[in-house]
């Protein structure tokens, strides 16, 4: 399961790049509402028809949802020119669901982009025209995935500049536990072979049980000096015992009150 965002401004060649690199490939789903409308009705003019556009949206949603649930990669064409709040929100949501994300940013000289658009004719649909729908609809896809994924958040800890999240999830051979931070960047689960590792990706360590994962979390981060955002009630007993041990070693701390409230 992965989401690949192909981003850039109008005329940069996002659609062509996606068609060349990903169209027709196994385990790839392309999320592009206008592309789906053309596929269903033969022309981008279908986007001017409310019923046709709605059908294209529904089809796009369904395909992207089932692709993610089937552990496939969804390629999203997204209009962005510099920092983009909508893109950031989508990536943040995906990361909260432990879905690896990647961005491919395309660039081209402004003059060339304008020339491409002027010569494109009816075979071109500007991604900026569906930017808002892409944000809203794909966020809905992620929310549907969230409802169906067998992930359970054990805790979220507030830290400077971000948060630490601790998760339990099910695999075919049993439960696994892991944690990550907002600073993890692009992340994925540790591959079986060193040769499969990619540069710039943070690989998460999986643990076979809660105790080993919790021990590593406590070793790596001073969580009881930070602020608890949420602790899953099913795991409060474990946290309470660890917190009491922490207090025996370091009784004076300004975050004690917050932890006491969160664990009671």
Q: Any overview of this molecule?
A:
The protein has 264 residues and is of the alpha/beta class. It folds into two domains: 2-148, P-loop containing nucleotide triphosphate hydrolases (Rossmann fold, 3-Layer(aba) Sandwich), CATH 3.40.50; 151-263, no CATH class. The protein has nine helices and ten strands. It has helices spanning 14-21, 33-41, 50-69, 85-96, 110-120, 131-148, 210-220, 236-249, 256-263; strands spanning 2-8, 28-31, 73-79, 101-105, 151-159, 162-171, 174-181, 186-189, 201-204, 227-231. The strands form three sheets. A four-stranded parallel β-sheet has the order 2-3-1-4, with helices on both faces. Helix 2 crosses helix 3 and helix 4 packs parallel to helix 6. The longest helix is centred in the N-terminal third of the chain and has 20 residues, at 50-69. It is elongated and about 70 Å long.
Total helices: the number is 9
- Largest sheet composition: 4 strands, parallel
Report the top-level CATH class of the largest domain.
Alpha Beta
Uncertain regions spanning at least 5 consecutive residues: none
Report the C-alpha radius of gyration, rounded: 22 Å
How many domains make up the 3D coordinates? 2
What is the strand arrangement across the widest sheet? 2-3-1-4
CATH homologous superfamily identity of the largest domain: P-loop containing nucleotide triphosphate hydrolases
Essential attributes:
2 domains, four-stranded antiparallel beta sheet, single chain, Rossmann fold, four-stranded parallel beta sheet, 9 helices, alpha/beta, 264 residues
């Amino acid at each position: 399961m992965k989401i690949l965002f192909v981003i850039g401004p109008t005329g940069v060649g996002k659609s062509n790049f996606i068609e060349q690199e990903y169209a027709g490939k196994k385990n790839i789903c392309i999320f592009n509402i206008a592309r789906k409308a053309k596929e269903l009705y033969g022309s981008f003019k279908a986007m001017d028809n409310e019923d046709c556009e709605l059908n294209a949206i529904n089809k796009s949603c369904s395909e992207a949802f089932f692709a993610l649930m089937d552990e496939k990669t969804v390629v999203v064409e997204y209009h962005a020119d510099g920092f983009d709040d909508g893109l950031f929100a989508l990536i943040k949501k995906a990361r909260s669901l432990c879905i690896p994300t990647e961005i491919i940013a395309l660039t081209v000289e402004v003059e060339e982009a304008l020339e491409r658009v002027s010569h494109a004719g009816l075979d071109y649909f500007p991604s900026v025209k569906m930017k808002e729908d892409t944000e809203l609809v794909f966020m809905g896809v992620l929310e549907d995935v969230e409802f169906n994924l067998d992930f359970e958040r054990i805790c979220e800890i507030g830290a400077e500049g971000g948060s630490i999240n601790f998760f339990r999830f099910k695999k075919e051979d049993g439960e696994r536990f892991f944690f990550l931070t907002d600073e993890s960047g692009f992340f994925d689960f540790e591959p079986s072979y060193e040769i499969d590792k990619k540069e710039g990706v943070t690989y998460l360590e999986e643990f076979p049980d809660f105790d080993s994962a919790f021990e590593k979390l406590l070793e790596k981060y001073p969580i009881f000096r930070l602020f608890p955002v949420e602790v899953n009630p099913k795991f409060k007993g474990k946290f309470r015992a660890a917190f009491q041990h922490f207090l025996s070693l370091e009784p004076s701390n300004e975050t004690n009150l917050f932890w006491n409230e969160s664990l009671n």
